Amino acid sequence: MVDKIKNKTNIDVDKFIERLKKELSINTISNDEKKKEANEQLVYCIYDVLVIILDVTHQNIISEGLYTTWLNMVKDYWYLNKYDDQFVKSIDAEENEDKNVKVKSIQVGDTTTTFADTTSQIEINGTTYNTGTIDFDNDILIEKYKKALYRHRKMRW
Hints:
4 strands; alpha+beta
């Protein structure tokens, strides 16, 4: 799979993967089996995003100019599919549980407070997305990165 990716880009894929492993905390996984699975899943994520980028830009290869966009899209794809929860577990589970609730409504008279469970939501750059559900769609990534992708778009006739 890595060779397929290398054939579709001018970017140094090995350094790209190493940077993603570091930024997604895959290198911190202590269980060797889980680390191997996370590395495999990362390569699949990179390939999936590569296909999305090539489809939107109508290009045959990903150029150096799309490096940052590709990197950010892979990270968003990783988080939107909840692979971070699957492979990279938080050390403090109680702290995570507190983060999974937010105030849904507050009533001042006779004090009523309602909390909403946000375990299937993630906030990326100030935007909240539903994750790991049927609501996730590649269009979320395309819409978010449309400007950057369209700068490199080749017109089809």
